[in-house]
Amino acid sequence: MRALPTSAPLNALHPPATRLKSGCSAPLAARGLLAVFLLGALPVCAAPEAPARHPLRLSPTNAPAEAHAAWTETLHFPGQHDRFLHAPKAADWADGHAIAGCLVWPAEAPRHAQLMAFMKDRDGHWFQKLRPEPLHPGTNAWCFDFSAEAPGWSPVGHHLVWNYRARLAPQMVGLRVFSLHEAYTGACQVVDTVLLATNRTATPPAIRNVRPNSRSIPCYGLFELRFELPDRYANPFDPAAIDVTALIETPEGRTNTVHGFYMQDYFRLVDAVGEQLIPQGRPEWRVRYTPRVPGLHRYVITARDPDGTATSAPGAFEARAAADPGFVQVARKDWRFFELDDGRPFFPIGHNTRSPFDTRMDEQFPWRFRHPEGTSAYQRYFQNMSAAGENLAEVWMCQWSLGLEWSTRSPGYHGLGEYHLGNAWELDEVLRWARESKLRINLVLNNHGRAGLGYDAEWDDSPYNTARGGFLPADDPMQFFASPRAIALQRQITRYLVARWGWDSTIFAWELWSELDLVGTHGQKPPPQSDPRVIDWHRQMGDYLRAIDPNRHLVTTHLSGDYRITSPELAQLPQLDHCGIDAYHFSDNPLQIVNLVRETAAHYQAYKKPVLITEFGGSSMGAGISHLKRELHAALWSSVCTPLAGTPLFWWWQVIEEQNLYPMYTAIARFMADVDRRDPAYQPIRLGQAFAGGLAVPDGQVDHVAMSTPTQMIGWLYIRPCFLRHGEPLDQPLENLTLTWSGCSNAVYRTAFYDTDTGTLIKQQDERSENGTLSIRLPPISRDLAFKVRLPGDATPWPE
Question: Is the pLDDT of residue 3 over 90?
């Protein structure tokens, strides 16, 4: 008999033992064992009613093709010997109540040898259970309780508690005979091995042990209920199997319906090799909610399954005054921008952090070795971003990071309708780190590759694909947007998302797709963003989110390329609150980003929605570092002076860290700290440029971006040659330059000039306008500067 594969725990020879009653090990005739065993042992190992019997086959390897009904083989001790057990169907294990059989032990064999059962679940977690009595000469009847509530199954290498779902399609189940000290060579026989299954009595679910995290919560804080339900659901994510809701009554008498969710706790080990998630404890149920008004809130939990309905005892908690500014929404008086629930403006400043690492970094910037990092990298990213004054990051839920649903080809995933609980716990942590750093997260729910056969194609591995056991054609991923079954599954996963994270104002927006135009097949007509199926999918999913998200997070979707591929039908959907787009380009001029910023902001005025550029940085494959630094600087400063809803999100997040480009964001944050652009009168303008005495500025040498109302203005002026490929700041600063602002009110204005590298004030001066025109004398300029023009006393800093 072969030794267990090297993946088996090294400490499996000394597991904790839980003693079973002796009825399972009474000596009996080998072939007559089963009938007597069922009469004498079932009160210990199975329910009283007659069980179903699934004969188990045994094999020397974990290969069903090698399995036989009985095992007879010569054993050599000291050591261990293993046999793998195979049920008729993988699904039989989940219905099993006990594993039983008999083992014939030779009289001369070691007297202290023992029998152990082991199981490795579908995620590779090892459980083992020791038969407490040593083997004795003759026939040993054995029985291992295999029910969901069975005690004594010890975890090895993790801290997951034995539970119903641990038995779903296990990777292996087996028996081990071992003797550590005595030498022996001889035969051993195992026969009549069965998996016993009993029919569960249909009873309604029971809600037990409801525990609130607190009875006093600040508004926008987390109120969480933990509770237990019967451990009997193969798919606790399917509302048809178990539907858990909480009704929460607010102080005004409104009722919010919040869905419960199934979760597993973990802890993280980080070392020089990488990261490892270790499950701990038993899976459990939770409800999460955030109050938005102070006062007494009342709640009750309801659980429904095919066997009936249960309702918890009512409870209550008190909501205190808010310590948080609340959720982000489109500004009520100016649809181009965002604001917070407390009325303050929210101007997104940030960059993209799609996932902990990007393999293209090594391809495009191979100056160093980068070890792929795990999710804990986000804690460092967010701390650095927050320290620099950033307030927004983008994070993707994708197959390789934080995704919930995918095919079993990727570890931790279990196909359609079941969710990766390790990644869900990771997202809990990512959002916690963002909260601690006062960052908002633009959360991307789907990336283009998962429904694409063209760019970054992942459709071949999609659980929806018939090639991976799904139901959609392998050659037509666009059916993802049209199939009623696929849409129902997307509604299910969206329900889980909102149940688990919908309480959290850290989430800036639910982004339904990233680079939607790249789904399907390359060059398809109509393009995906204009396909009626895709438009209707967004309509349906947007409506569903509105119906189940009590906090009305922003909802958006995103296209690649630039604004010129916009689909009017998609952009106009009322279910989408704002538009998302890329601004990649193939120009060798870093200032091309300024044109894209201006044109993007202008293009989306027609849809009367805010627009964000959420990816840029050279082309989609990058550019040289010098180019990217110039482009990032120009993108940040041009965006604050156009009606773009926030700064563009730079894609190459590891470049920002490795090159320490964070001070660029600090400068912008300082400049914008007292700026509120929410005024429809705030519009882009062109200023006159001239040297003293009216001498014209040479064409193409100096340019600017500016916005104004009749009484205030912000702007950025730059010397073009300084931003070209080999451009540098001027050795001799440009002097005696004057800007002319026409159309302003007649008054005395205060102009403040800012260093764009630091965001600090250089100087300020007061000047009077005449006949609706203000002439602004600029200080010497070596490369660029930013400025604000206001009526004295109008500047009111907003809190950070």
Answer: no
